[in-house]
Amino acid sequence: MTDIYINTNTGQGDTYIIILDKETFDWAKSDSPIPEGEHSATEPYPDIAIAAMRKADPNTPNECYISSGSYWNDRTLGLVSTVPGYKSLYFSTADVMKDIQKTGDKVIDSIEGCIY
């Protein structure tokens, strides 16, 4: 059994769900690296996230663009699932729950964001 973390982004009629490892989840929820007085920055993705994203798209960049008002959300929009054995991206809660039940993995925490 593996400890997993769920990220769900919804908006404009779409739902994107990914399964994250602890390192990527902790990175997504960490404090903003944007210096005070600045409004945006680029930030490197964790290595495990880059490896997973490059399986889905070899042209994945090493960093993401984040803004001061939505850096948690910005970090997760480009991610794909980082836990082996899961689809890169899910479009419904029912589908992701079926796969979690098959593996017997344990959901530890979740974050939610917006698609805009």
Describe what you observe in this structure.
The structure is a single chain. The protein is an alpha+beta fold. It has one domain (3-114). 31% of the residues lie in helices and 30% in strands. The protein contains four helices and five strands, in the order ββαβαβααβ. It has helices at residues 22-29, 47-56, 71-77, 93-103, and strands at 3-11, 14-20, 40-44, 63-67, 106-114. Strands 2-1-5 form a three-stranded mixed sheet, sandwiched between helices. Strands 3-4 form a two-stranded antiparallel sheet. The longest helix has 11 residues, at 93-103. It is globular, with a radius of gyration of 14 Å. The model has no long low-confidence stretch (mean pLDDT 93).
Strand content: 25-35%
Kindly state the number of beta strands: 5
Which structural class fits the helix and strand makeup? alpha+beta
Distance between the termini: 34 Å
Tell the overall outline: globular
Q: What series of H and E elements makes up the topology?
A: EEHEHEHHE
Instruction: Order the strands across the largest sheet as they lie in space.
Output: 2-1-5
Q: Unreliable stretches, pLDDT < 50, 5 or more residues? A: none
Major beta-sheet overview: 3 strands, mixed
Give the overall average pLDDT: 93
Count of alpha and pi helical runs = 4
Rounded radius of gyration (Å): 14 Å
Any idea how many domains?
Answer: 1
